[in-house]
Amino acid sequence: MKLEALLQQQNALPSIPKVVQEVIDSFNNDSVSIDEIARKLSADQVLSAKLLRLANSSYYHASRSVGTVDDAVLMLGFMTVRTLVVSSGLTGGFKAMPGVDLKQFWRYSLNTAVVAKWLARQLHSNSDFAFTVGLMHAIGQLVMHAGMPEQTLQIDKIAGPLDSRRVDVERNSFGYDFYDVGAELAKRWRFPENFSVAIKGSFDPLGQDSFEPVAAIVHIASWCARASESGFSPEEKEATFPVEVARRIGIQPDRVLNEMPPVSELAEGLQELIS
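Above: the chain sequence. Below: its structure as tokens.
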């Protein structure tokens, strides 16, 4: 199935709440009214309840209890609240589908996101941007499973979701891969262009026409998440770490392999996002 045809499948694209789309649109609008978005979020009981649970989680170490959406914006800042709202919209948009371990998928994606955020902070880069791209980078896999389940299940038999060979298998079968699908989905959801560029480039950041640092950050972060999920030994980590990508953004391998907190520790308190 061609990429365009896949994205036109009714069941391929998840529906996201209207307020989440408005929050995504705010990325492109410098004059957005934060008060107006907070008011709309407050009116969405499910989303606002999840936002408040996250704001009060151990991850954010809030100095006092966060009781309203306005409190969350005040305590965490609009950028963080926006990241949480978009993330909640994404993770809630996909329901159970045959052959997909959604729990593992979102755990891997969240782990990628928190490592990407940690790396971005080390590099004084935009950590909210890195987090969101990290969470979204593999979302094309879910779109493919939803839009062409039988064909995608055949791919699963050859190379599972975390298998490094998967991209090549998808390209040979369809002419595109899940990074391409995710990048196109970001465009359809009206994310800024740099989101699509970072998602598409995160598989091979050094092979793109122009280098995108966040794509490199997410590339390393997804490697860390895969290594954690697969239980790599220290020797396996040393042998497979993407050294050249790390060097390109000025990160020493030792900093990631030995100095970075464990992935589970970085994600502590954010599990609510994917539950």
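The chain has two domains: 3-7+95-274, 17-92.
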